[in-house]
Design a protein that fits this description.
Elements: H1 6-22, H2 26-32, H3 37-48, H4 67-85, H5 91-108, H6 117-128, E1 132-136, E2 143-147, H7 170-178, H8 185-190, H9 192-197, H10 200-212, H11 217-228
Antiparallel strand pairs: 1-2
Helix pairs in contact: 1-3, 4-5, 4-10
Length: 232
């Protein structure tokens, strides 16, 4: 049973509700919160109308090195660093706010969400454990996720230099097969990877560069007010 103050218990319940709504699984809730497991399960069932899913959390960092997950993970973690370094948010507060901003960016860019909340939380754990780091792209100077053992090697990010088969997924092939009005020459002139990425490259590159570069002092106050006004 929780033995803290009533107000702190209420805050923990609100944090649990927000994490569950964002898609957090039971191991994440148990690690980040002080509520009992039975209390968390009751909250989960009440909010989701279902029992919490079972199974292990992701344990390998290799997933973050593939081209599309690397783009989304880099974007999320740079937003997280901005919230902790500039907005002075706490770790858990920055995690939830950064993930909400990431979801809003995916919606505004009309691109599929790749990074689940569990993956975002695991990404932070890998950074805190010293397994992952950020490296500057040799083309756009944006910082992207890399393994710590490769940090000393200059490299370009997956946005600037996508792999040859980038975007060759079932969903992408299905979307291209339904777009009968698109001229066939577009794919040939832009290349396979560029055609698959669509407008994602430019949007993600601009956003990543904006988050990673040093902010103009005239814009800092307005940007901080915008970030800190995001509802928790």
């Amino acid at each position: 049973m929780y033995k803290g103050s009533v107000t702190e218990e209420a805050r923990e319940v609100l944090r649990a509700i927000e994490l569950i709504q964002l898609g957090a699984r039971m191991p994440v809730l148990e690690k980040e919160l002080t509520l009992s497991r039975n209390r968390l399960i009751r909250l989960y069932r009440e909010l989701k109308n279902a029992s919490p899913p079972k199974g292990m959390l992701p344990f390998s960092a290799d997933w973050y090195f593939t081209w599309l997950p690397n783009i989304h993970a880099s974007l999320f973690y740079n937003i997280y660093l901005f919230l902790t370094d500039r907005a002075k948010c706490s770790r858990l507060d920055a995690l939830t706010r950064a993930y909400r901003l990431y979801l809003e960016h995916c919606e505004s860019a009309e691109t599929e969400r790749v990074l689940s909340f569990t993956r975002a939380w695991t990404l932070l754990r890998f950074f805190e454990g010293g397994l992952l780091t950020l490296s500057s792209c040799t083309v756009c100077s944006g910082r992207f996720v890399r393994h710590v053992r490769d940090a000393h090697k200059p490299a370009a990010c997956c946005i600037c230099v996508p792999p040859a088969r980038a975007g060759m997924t079932r969903a992408a092939r299905a979307n291209r097969s339904t777009e009968t009005d698109t001229p066939a020459a577009t794919s040939a002139t832009r290349g396979r990877a560029a055609a698959a990425l669509g407008e994602l490259s430019g949007t993600m590159r601009d956003t990543l560069a904006e988050v990673t570069r040093a902010l103009d002092p005239k814009r800092s106050a307005n940007r901080l007010r915008l970030v800190t006004s995001v509802p928790v």
